[in-house]
Amino acid sequence: MLRRAEIMAAERGRGAVGLGVADDNPDALRLCQRLGYTTRVGRCVDRWAWVDHSGVKREEPQPCAFLASPLPEEADLVRVLATAG
């Protein structure tokens, strides 16, 4: 899924991709780091909303780290597209 997002961003002319990784998800943080993502903003808070079983809208803060990675050059992108499936 992450590689597909990178491909979509590159197809739109972007030079980098960024994402928030929740503090309570160290496995995702390690995966992103293995894929070449580095921390750009040490701490941030993402917010998301949901409706509970009573129909009340709730908002939850989610502490996270913001990571980013430059996208591959065009020749590398062709190889990524070929293996993305």
UniProtKB/TrEMBL annotation:
This is Uncharacterized protein.
